[in-house]
Every structure is written in structure tokens, then in C-alpha cells.
Amino acid sequence: MTGERELMDRARDVIAARLTAEHPGWLAGHDIYGWHAHRLDDGHTVRATGPDGLRALIGAAPPFATWHLAAELRRAHPAWHIWRDGTGWWHARRRGNFRQEHRPGAPLYAVHEPDAVLLRDRLQEQDKQDRPDMPGDGAGQAEGPAGTAERRVGIAEGRAGTAEGRAGE
């Protein structure tokens, strides 16, 4: 009896893994109440008595409201115009005047990703490229003569011409 139960549990695990692979963004499983799937974006849950019913319910689930994801991204990155197109891809382009430089590692004018999380990561990378030597990130502080890091901080904070900015020289 115990061996039969383990075999059934392993079979259900294989089916759950297939369901999860068939429906990206969903996590499928089985418990004592039957089959269930959770949408990873918002936690929406569907339950069914079998895997075929679960597939049907996943397909009929209401779409995930993406407006709050877009709002969070827009608040975090106000210099970017962010939207999701009809195919589900996320796009961002810079607002205002931006001159695109054509060199390796130059900041980008527009970014496109299939997922909001990937877009957020790309926008964070772009923000780091926009301000490479921020105070407190440790960048470039180990190199150069004494006081170089202080001069960079003074320049970044607009104190280069003041007595406070010249103190590190």
C-alpha cells in the first residue's frame, strides 16, 4: 500500500510539473483536496478535480491586471515612459531630451522585455549607467591618490568650486 501511494504521488508530481511548464506564470500541484494552480503574479488560485479541468480553468482565468505593475515601475523610474503592448511585451523609453550615444556600454534610449521583472532589472541597470560614481557605492574609491574619492563626491554633489570641495585636494 505504501509503495502504491508513493508511485501515485510521483505520478502527480510529474503531471504537476508538466502543467507548470505548459502554463508559464502558474504553479500547479496536487493536495488532499485535488488539483490546484496559483498564478505567480497575483496569487490567483484555481482548483479542479483533475489535470484536464485545471488546464481549462487556467485558460479561463481572468487576466492579471497589469496597471499596478506599470504604476510601480513608473514611480520607481520617472524618467522613463513605460507601457505594456497587446502582445504582453513591456517597453520603456526615456522622457525628454536624450541623446543616444553609439558606443559600447552607452545608456539606451529604449528598452524592451517580455516580462515586467526583466524590464525592472534593465531599467535599474540603465539607472546605474546614468550615474556611475554615486557616493556610497564604493566605485573607484580604492584607486588613485588620497582624496580622489572625496573630490568625486564633491563634484557629484556640486561642491567642486567651494572650499568644502577643494578640501580633499
Summarize the structure in words:
There is one protein chain. By secondary structure, the protein is α+β, with helices and mostly antiparallel strands. The chain has 3 domains: 2-60, no CATH class; 67-130, no CATH class; 134-169, no CATH class. 41% of the residues lie in helices and 18% in strands. The chain contains 6 helices and 6 strands, in the order H-E-E-E-H-H-E-E-E-H-H-H. It has a 3-stranded antiparallel sheet with strand order 1-2-3. Strands 4-5-6 form a 3-stranded antiparallel sheet. A hairpin with a 2-residue loop joins strand 1 (26-31) and strand 2.
Key traits:
single chain, 169 residues, alpha+beta, three-stranded antiparallel beta sheet, 6 helices, 6 strands, 41% helix, 18% strand, disordered C terminus
Question: Could you outline the blueprint of secondary structure elements for this entry?
Answer:
Layout: H1 2-22, E1 26-31, E2 34-39, E3 45-48, H2 51-60, H3 67-76, E4 80-84, E5 90-94, E6 110-113, H4 116-130, H5 148-156, H6 163-166
Antiparallel strand pairs: 1-2, 2-3, 4-5, 5-6
